[in-house]
Amino acid sequence: MPPVRILIVEDERQTVDALRDLFEQNGYETEVALNKQVALAILQERKMDLAIISTKVQEISGLEILYEIKKIIPNIPIIVVSDQKSKRIESSFMKAGANVFLAKPLESLFVLQTIENLLIARFAIATPKKTKSYSKSKK
């Protein structure tokens, strides 16, 4: 099975680096877009399995980017990350089609588990991480 590909649409370099390192250490491939135009070009050229977008990228609303992504790949899972925890902003993104809304700072294990859950729901497949095998003991 080919590796899962994640698009990161974020212009905050520290967040980009942290997410890219986290994903690549866990077997995911990543593409990074620092603006809307690059994000849309990546989506048209490459198959992406999941997108993570910021609520604001270079003064453009993350909602605008979310709508554009959904036009290209309607069923792509989208995680939105925000510098602020606001029910109003979260509600706007969820109504627009985001699957998950996360406030920074991001907790690595929670982000990985969220991605795994979204991918399992979308593809009914296991993620690149090794699955645990359990053996039944005979009594």
Automatic annotation (TrEMBL):
Organism: Candidatus Brocadia sinica JPN1
Sample GO molecular function, one term: DNA binding
Entry keyword Phosphoprotein: yes
Gene3D superfamilies for this protein: 3.40.50.2300
Keyword Oxidoreductase belongs to the record: no
Keywords assigned: DNA-binding, Phosphoprotein
Protein name: Sigma-54 dependent DNA-binding response regulator
All copies of domain Response regulatory, residue ranges: 5-119
Signal peptide extent: none
Coiled coil residues, start to end: none
Origin superkingdom: Bacteria
